[in-house]
Specification:
Elements: H1 3-25, H2 40-47, H3 58-61, E1 90-91, E2 98-104, E3 110-116, E4 131-135, H4 137-143, E5 145-149, E6 158-162, H5 169-176, E7 191-194, E8 200-204, H6 206-212, E9 214-218, E10 224-228
Antiparallel strand pairs: 1-2, 2-3, 3-4, 5-6, 6-8, 7-8, 9-10
Length: about 230
């Protein structure tokens, strides 16, 4: 091969190499570079979801639901609501206006079971028919639970409120004793009572509730919680 042919061959080889490099570095117009592959760890991290907070359970509000039943948990008469878990019934603080108990139903709701009571301290005392009110525990934690038993010509009635668990007996006492004419003697116009674990109930007759209209309690968050009694 002569010198001119050798030179031409060398130049052609250089040109081919340059073209190959350009094709590698610059993608053709209208195309995108191939996406890089993420590592398995990165893929796993991106698909991980934050865990949701645990839901509120009835026993978070009434811890005795997890304890064995005692004689104090016996109701004045059998609870007839078929959705109530009979083994879950536990006594709450008893009041002159109401005999009250907590339980859970088949849906896991927290239930307030109560009989309105006329306050008599002898065998002649009368009670109403039982009433049951149930609500999701998360709702009870924020808003409490209200049960209304209407009076009849022969049985007493009551407006009964199970307050949210963040209220202390002292907070409730302070606010209720501000009500004109209220007191802590036997059967006051607005009665309150707390369980051993601090859950507070408020009870009154329907006329008292209507006359008052509402009662407000301060919360530790700086807001107010209001019982609308109308």
């Amino acid at each position: 091969m002569n010198r001119k042919a050798s030179a031409a061959l060398a130049l052609g080889t250089i040109a081919l190499l340059a073209t190959a490099c350009a094709a590698t570095e610059d993608p053709a117009p209208g195309t995108s570079p191939a996406p890089s592959q993420s590592s398995p760890a990165a893929a796993e991290s991106s698909s991980a979801q934050p865990s949701s907070p645990a839901s509120v359970q009835a026993a978070d509000i009434v811890p005795t639901l997890e304890n064995a039943a005692t004689d104090q948990d016996k109701t004045p008469e059998p609870v007839t609501d078929p959705e109530i878990d009979q083994d879950s019934i536990r006594a709450l603080a008893q009041m002159s206006y109401a005999k009250q108990y907590a339980a859970v139903n088949d849906s896991g709701e927290l239930c307030l079971i109560a009989w309105a009571y006329d306050g008599s301290q002898d065998a002649n005392g009368t009670m109403s028919e039982q009433e049951v009110e149930c609500e999701d525990p998360a709702e009870v934690k924020e808003e409490g639970l209200h049960l209304d038993i209407d009076a009849t010509s022969s049985t007493p009635g009551v407006e009964l409120y199970l307050l949210p668990p963040d209220f202390t007996e002292e907070t409730v006492r302070t606010e209720l004793l501000k009500i004109e004419g209220n007191h802590e003697d036997l059967r006051p116009p607005v009665e309150f009572a707390a369980t051993d674990f601090g859950l507070v109930s408020v009870a009154m007759e329907a006329k008292t509730a209507s006359d008052l209209g509402k009662i407000s309690f301060p919360r530790s968050s700086g807001t107010e919680f209001t019982l609308d009694l109308d």
